[in-house]
Design a protein that fits this description.
alpha/beta, six-stranded parallel beta sheet, globular, binds zinc ion
């Protein structure tokens, strides 16, 4: 996608989980995750409407391998809502790892949406927890604010960005992924699966440099 896209007042940028634990040196580092920070900062300046999401787990969260004796990170377990990948402890509420990257500068963001706060359910998507039925409230926020087209950037492309994009399509939202403003983890081919899913669902991709305020 190379054609420029004009950003207007009913567009929203969702900046997914640009937190210390997902950047190099963090507990669940996305390779080169910190590279998105300057890109996202520049991009956000083009949007009047910006939402930041923040992974925000209680201690002992059931997505942590440490909560399951004998399991290690990247094993999977069966939760009541289905299969769940186990992660290193990360983004524990009010710890430095859960804080936004210190160079993330988006003072005009109108909403910080925290997810993963229910100990028993993980939450990749910014719209629904991993049981696929418990809403975060973001759909209501977007609808009430009249924000009809969303652009996704952040971490990790193949988990939280992917699930958010797919849920947005389920909600009949117009969703774009700003591909160079994301980085992925790539567990068992999850990056390729994400791009294939976006193509199959009609989720558009755009480069950050092609987005500009009208
Ligand atoms: Zn998490």
């Amino acid at each position: 996608m190379t054609a420029p896209v004009a950003i207007g007042d009913t567009d929203v940028l969702i900046v997914v989980d640009v937190q210390n634990d997902f950047c190099p040196g963090g507990a669940l580092a996305v390779p080169r995750g910190d590279e998105v920070v300057p890109i996202v900062n520049r991009l956000a300046a083009e949007f009047r409407n910006v939402v930041l999401t923040q992974d925000w787990h209680p201690r002992g969260h059931l997505s942590f391998a440490s909560s399951h004796p004998g399991k290690k990170p990247y094993d999977t377990v069966t939760m009541p809502y289905g299969s769940q990948v186990l992660w290193p402890d990360h983004c524990v509420q009010s710890t430095p790892g859960a804080a936004f990257h210190p160079n993330l500068q988006i003072p005009h963001a109108g909403l910080v949406l925290r997810k993963g706060i229910n100990r028993a359910i993980d939450s990749y998507s910014t719209f629904y927890e991993n049981d696929r039925t418990t809403p975060t409230g973001l759909v209501g926020y977007l609808r009430e604010r009249g924000l009809t087209r969303m652009f996704l950037a952040g971490l990790a492309l193949d988990f939280c960005v992917r699930y958010s994009a797919e849920d947005a399509r389920r909600e009949n939202l117009n969703v774009w992924v700003v591909d160079d403003a994301c980085r992925g983890i790539d567990v068992d081919g999850s990056m390729a699966a994400s791009w294939a899913s976006f193509a199959a669902l009609g989720i558009a991709r755009v480069a950050a440099q092609n987005l500009a305020r009208t």
